[in-house]
Amino acid sequence: MSRITHIKERFRGFLPVVVDVETAGFNADTDALIEMAVVTLKMDHNGDLLRDATFAKNILPFEGANLDPSALKFIGIDDPYHPFRGAVSEKLALQYLFAPIQQQLKETGCTRAILVGHNAFFDLGFVKKAAERCQLKSPFHEFSTFDTVSLAGLAYGQTVLAKAAEKAGMAWDNAQAHSAVYDTEKTADLFCEIVNQWPLYREVD
Questions:
Q1: Which residues pair with 41 in a beta bridge?
Q2: How many other C-beta atoms are found inside a 10 Å radius of the C-beta of residue 108?
Q3: Chain segment 143-183, per-residue pLDDT in tens
Q4: 43-69 per-residue burial string, b: 16 or more CB within 10 A, e: under 16
Q5: Which residues, given as ranges, of the chain have pLDDT below 50?
Q6: Strands (DSSP E) along the chain, which ranges?
Q7: Which terminus of the chain has fewer CB atoms gathered within 10 Å of its CB, N or C?
Q8: Residues with Cβ < 8 Å from 148, sequence gap 6 or more?
Q9: pLDDT of residue 202
Q10: In 3-state terms, what secondary structure has residue 109?
Q11: Model's pTM, two decimal places?
């Protein structure tokens, strides 16, 4: 028996990519996508899953988007149009964020990316709707996800990201929480920590 060390073999040809979105509400059809971060993952020569690179963009609300004041307050954004945010259109943001995923798919030979998230259906819903508005092909599987809520509930008995991270022995800074980059990187570390507890092996002839 030898431990699987190629990411293509670990998840049946799927490439796990960690995503977090910050939004101006809970409805992917009507509410603005404000921030999005992507963290790519890699496997080392021992077969351990590791955080690789982080990509993020601040995003301008799409035309006609709803902006819920309470949602903006929760993520700490007073004005999503403020020039200091350096925000770009949804289309430019998605093109930038999809590019490294598509590159990694080619490099690893994986067939499709699969979104990893904390309450992953929420993130996937906003990504899918934004891609549809921009007429871009999403690299993500249409409906399958890896959800760290369920995985952390199984591994640690915790479903809140901060509590699960602490239970896994990770540091947590509430002052940085609810920014797309911080939450995505912590979700990525949590996912890797859980997956690495269950390595897979192949039989050797």
A1: 51
A2: 16
A3: 999 999 999 999 999 999 999 999 999 999 988 887 899 99
A4: beeebebebeebbbbbbbbbeebebbe
A5: none
A6: 2-3, 14-23, 33-43, 49-58, 112-117, 140-147, 201-202
A7: C
A8: 116, 117, 118, 120, 161, 164, 187, 190, 191, 194
A9: 83
A10: coil
A11: 0.95
